[in-house]
């Protein structure tokens, strides 16, 4: 199965410009590589212009637009995440669509990143499983800072996830954390991690790119640098079961010992 990661710059607080950029990237990537799955970065419609969310957050247009794109291109579309306005506030939400344009899951980021003031502007997501299917395999999604909470990735793995997507806007100077945590989550849960970060500047932050695919053994199958680019990787999801048979971590867990 082919997975395309779109590592893009995001125009600060300019949703229309960003939608056009996504449309262009998507068309190019799909025509060139014919992927089965395409993944975008976090909050690709607005960037971290949190103070202007009332003006710029999506009010219900983008989910329908992403559904159409999934159908037009016949892809599983992991729509990164978008800033959206709901009746009770703003959320940072991932929508995933099947190739026939149906929504298969939506997940709003639960852990809010104080270093970038998320708790002042965004509501935490509701507690429900971000699990969905890609063919016969279970997949899950989390968003950026969620990566620091091994419990979430472990819950997805315990629910059967073979692959977890991590759309992000992860800034410098923590590139070393990004790389180490992605590998750690893949190794400890013996699953694929497909992580899509943005590049460029926004507000006071410079984002570090290095989107990558990590396999269940912890090897980085492919990694981008710090420029706008896309990456298409062939992933054999059956590798998860092979690794889990080799070192049967999930059989050897002793939940009673974990206080
Ligand atoms: O955890 C980090 O260092 C970065 C997290 C982040 O930038 C985010 O959640 O948007």
Would you summarize the structure shown here?
The protein has 259 residues and is α/β, with parallel strands linked by helices. It is 29% helix and 29% strand.
What does this structure look like?
This protein is of the alpha/beta class and 259 residues long. It has a single domain, classed as Nitrilase/N-carbamoyl-D-aminoacid amidohydrolase, CATH 3.60.110. The protein has helices at 15-33, 53-56, 62-73, 118-121, 150-158, 175-189, 239-246, 249-252; strands at residues 2-7, 37-39, 76-78, 82-86, 89-97, 103-108, 131-134, 137-141, 161-167, 192-196, 199-202, 205-208, 212-214, 220-223, 229-234. The strands form three sheets. Strands 1, 2, 3, 4, 5, 6 and 15 form a seven-stranded mixed beta sheet that branches. Strands 7-8-9-10-13-14 form a six-stranded mixed beta sheet, with helices on one face. A two-stranded antiparallel sheet has the order 11-12. The mean pLDDT is 97. 2-oxoglutaric acid is lined by residues 113, 116, 144-145, 148, 169-171, 174, 177.
């Amino acid at each position: 199965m082919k997975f395309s990661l779109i590592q893009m710059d995001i125009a600060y607080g300019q949703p229309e410009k960003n939608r056009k950029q996504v449309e262009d990237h998507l068309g190019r990537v799909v025509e060139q590589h014919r992927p089965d799955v395409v993944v975008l970065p976090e909050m690709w419609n607005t960037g971290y212009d949190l103070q202007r969310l009332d003006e710029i957050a999506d009010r219900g247009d983008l989910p329908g637009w992403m559904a159409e794109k999934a159908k037009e291109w016949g892809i599983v579309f992991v729509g990164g995440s978008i800033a959206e306005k709901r009746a009770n506030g703003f959320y940072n939400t991932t929508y995933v669509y099947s190739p026939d344009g149906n929504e298969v899951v939506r997940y709003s980021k639960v852990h809010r990143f104080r270093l970038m003031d998320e708790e002042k502007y965004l509501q935490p997501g509701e507690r429900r499983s971000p699990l969905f299917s890609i063919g016969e395999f279970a997949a899950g999604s989390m968003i950026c800072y969620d990566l620091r909470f091994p419990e979430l990735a472990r819950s997805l793995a315990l629910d059967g996830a073979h692959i977890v997507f991590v759309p992000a806007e992860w800034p410098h100077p923590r590139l070393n954390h990004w790389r180490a945590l992605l590998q750690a989550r893949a190794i400890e849960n013996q699953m694929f991690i497909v992580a899509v970060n943005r590049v460029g500047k926004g507000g006071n932050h410079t984002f570090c790119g290095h989107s990558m695919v990590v396999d269940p053994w912890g090897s980085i199958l492919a990694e981008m640098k710090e420029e706008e680019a896309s990456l298409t990787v062939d992933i054999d999801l059956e590798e998860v079961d092979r690794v889990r048979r080799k070192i049967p971590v999930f059989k050897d867990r002793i939940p009673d010992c974990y206080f």
